[in-house]
Amino acid sequence: MHTIKDIMLIQDLFKMNISTLKDIATDLDIDDTTLNKHELVMRIYLEKNRFNLETISKIENRILSTKATAVSWYKLDSGLTTDEFRQLIRQSSSFDPFTETNPIQENDVTTIPELLFGSTGLSANGTFLRYIYKSGVRYEPTTTTIKTATKTAIATVYFDSDKGILEIRGDTRKAPEVVRKVAHSLRLQITMEPIKTPFEQEMGTIADQLNGQLTEATSKPELYFKDFSEDEMVSVVNVLKALDEYMQTKDTTILETHLQNASDSFMQGEAIVPFANLVLSGMETVGMAGSSEIRSLPLFSYLNPYLQHQGGFIKFPYVIENVEDTFTIRIGINSKSVVFVSQVTEDVIDFVRSRVII
After folding, report:
1. Do residues 211 and 171 both lie within one domain?
2. Angle of helix 82-91 relative to helix 175-186, nearest 10 degrees?
3. How many other CB atoms are found less than 10 A from the CB of residue 74?
4. Based on the structure, what is the number of domains in the chain?
5. Which of 80, 144, 244, 267 is the most exposed place for a label (fewest CB within 10 A)?
């Protein structure tokens, strides 16, 4: 049965930081003093069959959870055990993905995801599957012509039988197709649906669940006026100009006049549209960022009621081997996904999964 190290690809090594790669090189007695990162990765990959238990223990928690990992989650309504899941995957494949590698050639890869191989997870209830698909074409100039070559990408699937979820790591736009491929392989009448609930709450709530800080938010105005008349637009601009003038002259006369004009222009029955809404409604996106928690900023508190958040960044602490480190994730409200911006481990992904998703 494959373990995580057996389904490691060269691109996984490229995503590791240089200090981890140097540790692996030392374990393998590779002299790295004259090697750049590219050369170091190539040497390590060629020697991967010599990984000892100490080396494996250092990296198995990181191989499939490297920097810039995008993750989305689906609920698998099947009640399958780990063994049942693996057996169904075997039965739908022309090879045993848990002991062999798909012999498919890169030029034969299409946009339809194909299973490369699978492995056990770090826990008894976990299973990893890795799919390959064509993501584009690259051009390679030669002396007399330009050759085309297939660009491929990898999607990694994690199945947790205890929690009944599928976790898709890779391009979130491809995730639904990968999920359909898994469902087809299982050959069961099952329901798979994206886990949406966590992304329907405030991003600040997600930050609190992780004991973290919301450090950046990208939003759209709550209201959007498509049909501003010229007079309405002028009235808003005049208020802003009058505010600038008041700060210089302290004369409230002009400011009061323009405020009244704007109020009259945007009266909606008995209600008056908040001025903050009027200013924001002319913007396509609004971004706010800080080095730490932005919810404590007065401007964020003032504008927040009039914004629909589309995504943002959260920093949170997590202890690895008795040392507390800080990690950053990017929340995608529309894509229902999380991107792990920092270099992370399986434990960090599990922490986010257990606190936010499940």
Report:
1. no
2. 90
3. 23
4. 3
5. 144
Q: State how far the alpha carbon of 111 is from the alpha carbons of 96, 107, 144, 179, 221, in Å.
A: 22, 11, 29, 14, 37
d(Cα 313, Cα 290) in Å, to the nearest integer? 10
Could you list the pLDDT tens digit for every one of the 358 residues in the chain?
999 999 999 999 999 989 889 999 999 999 988 899 999 999 999 998 888 888 888 889 999 987 788 999 998 877 899 999 999 999 999 999 999 999 999 889 999 999 999 999 999 999 999 999 999 988 888 888 898 888 999 999 999 999 999 999 999 999 999 999 999 998 876 677 889 888 999 899 999 999 999 999 998 887 655 556 667 677 777 878 888 888 888 888 888 887 787 777 766 544 456 667 766 766 767 888 888 899 988 888 888 888 888 999 999 999 988 999 999 999 999 899 999 998 899 999 999 999 998 7
Long-range contacts of 55-58 (CB under 8 A, 24+ apart): 55/24, 55/27, 55/28, 56/3, 56/5, 58/20, 58/23, 58/24, 58/27
- Same domain (yes/no): 148, 202: no
Listed as own residue / partner, the contacts of 234-238 with beta carbons closer than 8 Å and 24 or more positions apart are 235/261, 235/262, 235/265, 235/266, 236/262, 236/278, 236/279, 236/282, 238/262
DSSP H or E run through 157: strand 146-160
Please tell me the pTM assigned to this model. Answer: 0.86
∠ Cα 290 354 190 (to 5°): 120
Domain identity same for 73 and 188: yes
CA distance 127 to 90: 13
Tokens of 241: 């100009």
205 and 163 in a common domain: no
What 8-state DSSP symbol labels residue 353?
I
Q: Report yes or no on 6 lying in a domain.
A: no
- DSSP letters spanning 20-56: HHHHHHHHTT---TT--HHHHHHHHHHTGGG--HHHH
Query: For the residues of 179-195, what is the DSSP string, one character each?
Result: HHHHHHHHTS--EEEE-
Q: How many Å apart are CA 164 and CA 76, to the nearest integer?
A: 5
DSSP 203-223: HHHHHHHTT-EEEEEEEEESS
